Amino acid sequence: MLLSPQLSRTGEWFLGSGIQQPNGGVARYYHTDRQCNAPVSTEITGYAVSALVYMHSLSHDQRYLDAAARAARFLARVAWNPAMAAMPFEIEPAAFSYFFDCGIIVRGLLSAWRATGEDEFLGAAAAVGGSMARDFASENGDFHPVIGLPAKIAEPRDARRWSRSPGCYQLKSAMAWWDLFEATGEPCFREHYQHVLESSLAGHLDFVPGHPDRLGRMDRLHAYCYFLEGLLPRANEARCAEALFAGIAVAGACLRNIAPEFVRSDVYAQLLRIRLFADWAGAVALDRAAAEEEAGTLAGFQCAGRDPRIDGGYWFGRKGGELLPFINPVSAAFAGQALELWESRVPVNRHLLI
Q1: Which of 34, 216, 224, 343 is the most buried (most CB within 10 A)?
Q2: Do β-strands 146-148 and 322-323 pair in parallel, antiparallel, or remain unpaired?
Q3: At 347, which CATH number?
Q4: What would the pLDDT profile of 258-293 be if each residue is shown by its tens digit?
Q5: Whole-angstrom Cα distance, residue 336 to residue 104?
Q6: Which domain holds residue 305?
Q7: Would you say 78 and 91 are in contact if contact means Cβ atoms under 8 Å apart?
Q8: CA separation (Å) from 119 to 110, 114, 153, 288?
Q9: What is the pTM of this model?
Q10: How far apart are CA 88 and CA 150, in angstroms?
Q11: Where are the beta strands (DSSP E) in 141-196?
């Protein structure tokens, strides 16, 4: 199967822009104003593995699988610190580990394992998943968002920053435990996912309004879409279907309300993808008019030019009518997948959700 023109260009950006380093790690984003990459991020590398495996699943182009395997080996052999039994946020220095990032990395490693059959990736995924349960658990029954390394002491929480506070968005990372349960049969992983599901369903509609700043809610909306994605393993259950129905409606209204002032391309992509996956799961019927509008707007964020560092990537977002000077691998991965799914209308396995 051939990739669509937009996804083919995005794939070439991942392969040829320099966003992936020779050691397999992937930079957080490309600064168009400074003409340089940000440092390598383990989380972004995890997303890139999943994106490259997805593109290989459609095209069977060996280049994508080779790049995915390089990124997965970076995570398993370079990023994972066996002495600390921890996955750092960045390698130099290895000062922090994020609960959310670890879940994304587990899902990336599992996607590489399914595509290559290399047991090293499954073993690394299980090790990171074990760290998530062991090192981030708090006395309150939730999971710390950030711990300091090497001591593994929880960092102070900040209620104004979603990435520095626990919340329903953590369900996307907890989905990695469900995937590990499916891969290993270990019931503890299923129980960990179930624990986060229960807490996430309680009060999830208060998450986006929880930020006092109007524009700050766009970032929270990005995180809230992670919650909606995290519901997919149980989308056929009534209460999860209800949460998807309510959450999609809230996300769509909030996006359209704030977008004239500040919008992230990844939010358009996340919302479009969850509409499709929820429809395929039989949980929420697709609002075709809303999806078409989101797809059309999202397509406008794809970069074009002769410079391979930008062509085929996706702009991070727009603020005050101006594009922000970042080309983001996550934006590119989410947008490329969302538009491909929308154009093809062919259901795919939940495991391929980036």
Answers
A1: 224
A2: unpaired
A3: 1.50.10.10
A4: 999 999 999 999 999 999 999 999 999 999 999 999
A5: 18
A6: 5-352
A7: yes
A8: 10, 9, 31, 41
A9: 0.96
A10: 10
A11: 146-148, 153-154
